[in-house]
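**Reference record**
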Amino acid sequence: MTVAVEAAREAGAFLHANHRSALTVETKADESLVTNVDREAERLIISRIQAMFPDHDIIAEERGHASRGSDHCWIIDPLDGTHNYIRGMTTYGVSIGVRKGRSFIAGVIVMPETDETYTAEQGAGAFRNGRRIHVSHRSDLSACTVAFDSELRVEAARKLHVLGELCPSIFNIRMSGSAARNLTYVAEGVVDGVVEFSDKLWDFAAGVVIVTEAGGRMTGLDGAPLTDRDAAYVASNGIIHDSLLRIAESA
């Protein structure tokens, strides 16, 4: 955890220092964007991890999978919310998850613009800047706020159908453009759930530990534990989870 926190905070400080600076922006094969800042932040994180754990596997958004046959795997998103960052918005973060075997065992998310560090270890609770956090206790869906997949250009018909089913049942919707922000908000009870269809492993690897250790629940749309093959999921305070799953599966 010490290495994960130090790496995430160093990368976060770098992102903050370069926010709204001139960027080199490229379009990747999946039509998402990447900048020179993403790549440098990732290099900083990997350098710290490899200095302490040279035999561990690493999956990083920009560099891919470096397999060394280890049971431990670090999963890195150096800049979650790249599109927000490019546009000068402040909703972006650094996400580092650790998996042992098939279990997610630790997560760190840093939100540089608000100076927030979220941490969680399996069985040890979830924390924001060192203070324990917990999901909300709302059970009435009509009073709940839910964060929703903001990448509507991908599978638009499916997502808009679910959104149309969801909106009459809840109080309101938020789209932040950052899985790190959505999942930390669930963990500390700011929002009550998240419905996502288009994420990658590095988007949620840290968040799944933080949400579950905060007392919440996070699963694939089939209700099963998340795996590295999942792109769609529901995260929630646990109380409204099955209701969100039923709506999300309606497409």
